[in-house]
Amino acid sequence: MKLKKSIGDNTYIGVEKGITLVALVITIIVLLILAGITISLTIGQRGILKRAEEAGKNYGEASKQEENELIKISNEMDSIIEGTVVPDLPSETNYTIVDGVPVPKGFEHVEGTKDTGFVIKDISVDSQGNPTKTNGNEFVWVPCTEDGKNGSIKYDRYAFSSQGWAYTQTKDEKTGEILVPAYVGYVFTEEMSNIEITSIKKYGGFYIGRYEVGVEGYDVEVKTSNTNNEKEWTGYTNGTAVVQEDKQVWNYITRDLAKKIAEEIYTNNMVTSRLCSSYAWDTTLQFIENRNEGYATNSTGGNYSRILKHTGMGSIAKNNIYDMGGNITEWTTEVCSSQIEPCTGRGGVYVNNPNDGPASYRCYTRQEYAYDHIGFRIALYIS
Q1: 69 exposed, middle or buried (CB, 10 Å; 0-12, 13-18, 19+)?
Q2: Closest CA to 253 of 241, 236, 273
Q3: How would residue 211 be classed by pLDDT, with cut points 50, 70 and 90?
Q4: Domain residue spans in the chain?
Q5: How far apart are the C-alpha atoms of 46 and 102, rounded to whole Å?
Q6: How open is the CA angle 117-379-265, to the nearest 5 degrees?
Q7: How far is CA 190 from the centre of its chain?
């Protein structure tokens, strides 16, 4: 600050103002503090941008929850109008709901409806974005309930009758044993697994392989004889199990190895794969028959020519599920009371005509048997 003289005398009449270096520094410091506060409020841990991001996320989750609630209300209305049961699906993140059907994470709905055959496809990729070994596998939803009330299909083992010579079956309702009169003294039994119980109770259904399990990438030369009678044996080596169209059916395989491979196809926490049980097989046949697709217990619709690839030409699909009434017999986890031949095969096979081998066909055989006309199919349960 500088005093200024008046004109003509020595009287000081005022001051001349200026900015000192100290004041400038203080001003800059204040501006920096204000800038820091502004930046913190904008992009800090609890800043405006972070809060906006959280608000957007919360809005998305709320919208998804609202959508699920609307679907639930719609399903309940359908239940009242149509007299059918729709499960009260839990709200989780390992699946989405489409047409009232839970679609596991890593899969997408590709065609069909819950009534006509709801098909999903595996779309999973690895961390580099490359398709995994299971990418492209297809499955069909089979809606069912634990008790079968209100018009729903009960997840159960069933006895079927047909025009065939051997396959009129009866069931003991107390023990659950299935008897095939042609096999005098032998009964077929199985206990439902905890995985099946949980999936049916929680989700109101399960997925079954759209196709018989195929093998991809196997060696050109295939062994066709299990000379050492090994229980875990296959004629294919270095192969990958797939559930896809236009793949060589995985035949020449023993029941025990089929069971092991089926359980290894999916091992994540989203879904669980299992060799098809008699519960899954029979409930699927009921699903097919209830929609008038035919071939579960009678002589119509099976593929009884030797087509071991699913080319779509000649293979028979019912409710978008292929060849349960033909092509090859398929291993299941059902057990026969025969001590020598305790394993059970199901479904039609190309070596028999439709009357002798409908889709409800049950046969017993040895664990170490592996032929060209025996393969397997898997069921998929949401974890």
Answers
A1: exposed
A2: 236
A3: very high
A4: 2-43, 92-382
A5: 36
A6: 120
A7: 23
Cα radius of gyration rounded to whole Å, the chain: 33
pLDDT for the residue numbered 270: 85
Residue 173 tokens read as 């309702």
**Residue 260 neighbours by CB under 8 Å, 6+ apart:** 232
Location of structure tokens 């000379």: 227
Predicted TM-score (pTM) of this structure: 0.76
If 0-12 CB within 10 Å is exposed, 13-18 middle and 19+ buried, where does residue 217 land? exposed
Helix H or strand E segment including 83: none
Average pLDDT of the residues in 81-86 = 45
CA distance 381 to 383: 6
Q: In what order do the strands lie in the sheet with 271-275?
A: 107-111, 119-122, 138-143, 205-209, 378-382, 271-275
DSSP 8-state assignment for residue 136 = T
Q: For residue 275, what is the enclosing H or E element?
A: strand 271-275
